[in-house]
Amino acid sequence: MVHGVINLRSTFYSEVGIGILANTILFLFHVIKFLCDKRLKNTDCIIGLLALTHLLMLLTMGFIAADIFTSQGGLWGDVTCKSFAYLYKLMRGLSISATCLLSVLQALTLSPRSSCLAKFKPKAPQDSLRSLLFLWVFYMSFSAHFSISAVDNSTGTSQGLIFLSDSCTILPMSYFLRHLFTALGALWDVFLIGLMALSSGYMVTLLHRHKRQCQHLHGTSLSPKASPEQRATRTILLLLGFFVLMSYLDCVISSSRTMWNNDPVCHSIQMMVANGYATSSPLVFICTEKTQP
């Protein structure tokens, strides 16, 4: 059991380290591109800010894990852990918002000129950046009233692994308001995920229609080269696939934790799964940038 916990800890820190390195590379690449290249795509600013969000998210989770994995716990203090927990929750929400906007913008970019959605296409990268900043300001002002879960008093240890059990809030709230804002936050996430699903289905439909048209014009023996918009669309669809997979696994493991009485090993696995999207998303963009001319 002790060796299992040590292996989980090593795996977790390896995942966080890879994610931090990959997001740093992706963020710096888009910063240099923003400063030097005038031919920016509408999604470039969002991808750069998404990498920055995931970078802060992984750094925050690393500090939280350092407190959880210590034998005594309370490494950073109660107030600091509250701040880390709030920052992680905020970065997670901003990540969902940026991913949703990325999928919607790509669906608008891919839509034909005859479509009714063509008039909503952003004319410049600054338009998509303003849309993302509006979403972030709205979410941050909305989430400021959320109750914040953090380390209160450690109530369970197992082989030097302390896990979160109690909760506390920075802002005092009544029972009704606390559950009301929690429900509103869940509805906001469901709304964004629904937009991702609609935009993904629309992009798949457009790609399938384009493929059939090319086969009809050029014949089945030819495989026409995909346009940059189509390659970017496939990259974002792959990214959304990772997001859905990690979210599904997170829900399954969260449900399993209650069955296993909050087993610390299960909790550690959930932490790794929760960081899976933040770690894999920059790798998807980096790999596709290498393959694109």
From TrEMBL:
Subcellular locations according to the entry: Cell membrane
GO biological process, one term: sensory perception of chemical stimulus
Molecular functions (GO terms): pheromone receptor activity
Highest taxon, organism lineage: Eukaryota
TM annotation in the entry: 12-35, 47-70, 90-111, 132-151, 180-204, 232-249
Main localization category: membrane
Domain (G-protein coupled receptors family 1 profile): residue spans on this chain: 22-285
Its membrane topology: Multi-pass membrane protein
Keyword field: Cell membrane, Disulfide bond, G-protein coupled receptor, Membrane, Pheromone response, Receptor, Transducer, Transmembrane, Transmembrane helix
GO CC annotation terms, alphabetical: plasma membrane
InterPro entries reported for this sequence: GPCR_Rhodpsn_7TM, Vmron_rcpt_1
Assigned protein family: Belongs to the G-protein coupled receptor 1 family.
Name of the protein in its database record: Vomeronasal type-1 receptor
Gene source species: Marmota monax (Woodchuck)
